[in-house]
Each structure stands twice: as structure tokens, then as C-alpha cells.
């Protein structure tokens, strides 16, 4: 069902940047700079930028009421792959808009193309990131990017098959593996998709049977990978000291073997800081299905009863809410 043939070669796309709307720029500054340890810069009184490497932009926090992701940018390796994607989108009759120069400058790219993706999230593609040699001022040694991209994102969907099809057809993604986890009487099925040597750039979760979406945000969590273990653990302690709620304490996933923790951002979605996940060797990789999300750890550190009630409430109301998928 998921093996959709790709018309373009593998390993040509990676997560490039994320844009978030929030009215809490001051809290985001504390979160990104002082808790996670990112390089922070105000581009204007309404726009906050975070860097983690030579890319001029990795995160943009813009003044807005959504308290959610508005855009995800994906870097495409060359013009040929870009033309292939634009051709697929045209064939699928998905409207594409080319960004203007001011918008491109804000994103730290030469040019970009935008279209509506899963759950109404704007997806942007570009080939020419602006790189800078301006030194980074961070509380960490650095983060793993390069050919792996900025990190990964996870979505919850009531139409997971269509979302998997979207990422495979448009971005040439391949399935790395699956996780099945029973939680609060509900079985959760998660599909992990890779676009490059990173174990997954996108994860898609769905409830088995009756499809619900208990997550109020377009993205359930975003992950970045610390270069060393101390940076990850120190970020965990800084988050706690600064009063940010820890969704899940330090633990390890069984499939990508990453050690990580999850913290609640000022906008309410989760942010995962990880360390030392495996990378995928295409010639030797075999899909597997795991029966638990965590091999150990990742214990909840927030009010479990309240959290479960809120998830149940959102899941119930999601039954009556439509979910946008591009095709």
C-alpha cells in the first residue's frame, strides 16, 4: 500500500527551516536562546530568528495569533529535482506560488516556491540557502545538520495513508520502519519516513480503527540533534530551571536509537532535543516494526490526568473536523 514508485532519485531533500506564528516572542527568546541554547537574533520587533549552523535562518518566530507552525521549508539539492517536484505538483493540480524577494530574504534563501501541504501547513521548497560565516553565539557546541537537514517533524493524521503518499510522491521519501504502541486503550501506528541519511525527516502517527487527532497543532513535535550528549542533557536541565514544562524526560527510542527529551514550547507544541541517532545505509537497511515508542525513559513530567483528559477531549472533537490533504 505504501510502496509508491518515485520518479526522481532518492536523497535530494532535507528539512531546511520552520516558520512559527506566536504572540510570545519574549518567551520564545528565553526558550530558544537560554533553554535550548540556540543562536538568537531579532530581525525586527515582530520577527525573531534562530540559527544552529551556517544557514542564515533555521527558525523564524513571527508575531501572529496562530501559536503554531505556518510553514516548513525543504531544501532541494538541485534545479533538476526542483523542476521534477514542480512538475508533479502541476500534474496533481496543486497551486504553487513563487515567493517574492522580500519573503525570500526573510527566509534566508535566494528563492522559494510555496504550496499547501498536509493539514493546511504551507510547504516551501528551495535550492539556494544563504550561508553565513557570522560566528554563532550558543550555549551548545552545535547541532548535526549538513546532509541530514535541520532535523525532523512528527504529525498526527486521520488520513495517514494519504500523508505517506504525499511525502513519498513529492519528496521521494522512503519508509524506514514502523512503531505500534498501545496508549490509554488506543493503539497508535507510526510510520517513519526518510529523505536522506537521517533515519526520518517526517513521522506520521495515527490512531488505529477510529481515526482521531488529539493534537491541536499542525506539527506534534519538531526535533533537532545535538552534537554531544552533554549539550542535550544540559538543555534538559536548563528547560526545567527556566520553568518550561517537560513533556517527556530523557529516554531512548528503539528504532533510531536516539537519546532525547521533549519540552513544551511557548506555543504549546513539543520540541525534541536528541543525540546520537543512527543514520541509514541504503544498501543494508531493512524495515522493522517496533512495539514500543521508547526502549526506556521518556516518562511524562506533566500532569498525566489533565493531559489525558485534554487529549481525549481534542480527540473526540476531531471526529467532526475535516483534515486537509493535498491529494
From TrEMBL:
Residues 149-276 form the VOC domain. It comes from Leptospira langatensis. Belongs to the extradiol ring-cleavage dioxygenase family. This is Extradiol ring-cleavage dioxygenase. Keywords: Aromatic hydrocarbons catabolism, Dioxygenase, Iron, Metal-binding, Oxidoreductase. Its cofactor is Fe(2+). One of its GO terms (molecular function) is dioxygenase activity. The keyword Iron applies. CDD domains: BphC1-RGP6_C_like.
Amino acid at each position: 500500500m505504501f510502496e509508491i514508485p518515485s520518479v526522481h532519485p532518492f536523497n535530494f531533500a532535507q528539512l531546511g527551516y520552520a516558520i512559527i506564528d506566536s504572540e510570545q516572542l519574549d518567551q520564545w527568546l528565553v526558550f530558544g536562546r537560554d533553554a535550548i541554547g540556540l543562536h538568537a537574533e531579532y530581525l525586527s520587533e515582530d520577527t525573531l530568528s534562530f540559527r544552529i549552523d551556517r544557514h542564515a535562518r533555521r527558525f523564524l518566530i513571527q508575531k501572529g495569533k496562530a501559536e503554531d507552525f505556518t510553514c516548513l521549508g525543504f531544501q532541494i539539492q538541485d534545479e533538476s529535482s526542483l523542476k521534477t517536484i514542480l512538475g508533479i505538483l502541476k500534474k496533481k493540480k496543486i497551486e504553487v506560488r513563487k515567493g517574492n524577494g522580500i519573503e525570500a530574504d526573510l527566509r534566508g534563501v535566494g528563492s522559494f516556491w510555496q504550496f499547501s501541504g498536509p493539514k493546511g501547513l504551507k510547504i516551501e521548497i528551495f535550492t539556494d540557502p544563504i550561508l553565513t560565516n557570522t560566528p554563532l553565539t550558543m550555549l551548545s557546541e552545535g547541532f548535526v545538520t549538513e546532509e541530514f537537514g535541520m532535523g525532523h517533524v512528527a504529525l498526527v493524521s486521520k488520513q495517514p495513508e494519504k500523508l505517506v503518499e504525499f511525502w513519498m510522491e513529492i519528496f521521494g521519501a522512503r519508509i524506514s520502519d514502523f512503531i505500534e504502541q498501545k496508549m490509554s486503550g488506543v493503539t497508535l501506528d507510526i510510520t517513519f519516513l526518510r529523505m536522506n541519511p537521517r533515519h526520518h525527516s517526517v513521522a506520521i502517527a495515527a490512531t488505529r480503527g477510529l481515526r482521531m487527532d488529539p493534537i491541536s497543532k499542525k506539527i506534534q513535535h519538531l526535533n533537532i540533534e545535538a552534537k554531544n550528549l552533554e549539550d542535550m542533557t544540559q538543555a534538559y536541565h536548563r528547560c526545567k530551571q527556566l520553568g518550561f514544562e517537560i513533556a517527556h524526560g530523557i529516554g531512548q527510542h528503539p528504532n533510531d536509537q536516539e537519546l532525547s527529551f521533549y519540552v513544551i514550547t511557548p506555543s504549546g507544541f513539543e520540541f525534541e532535543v536528541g543525540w546520537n541517532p543512527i543514520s541509514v545505509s541504503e544498501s543494508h537497511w531493512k524495515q522493522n516494526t517496533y512495539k514500543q515508542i521508547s526502549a526506556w525513559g521518556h516518562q511524562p513530567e506533566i500532569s498525566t490526568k489533565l493531559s489525558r483528559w485534554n487529549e481525549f477531549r481534542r480527540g473526540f472533537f476531531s471526529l467532526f473536523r475535516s483534515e486537509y490533504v493535498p491529494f
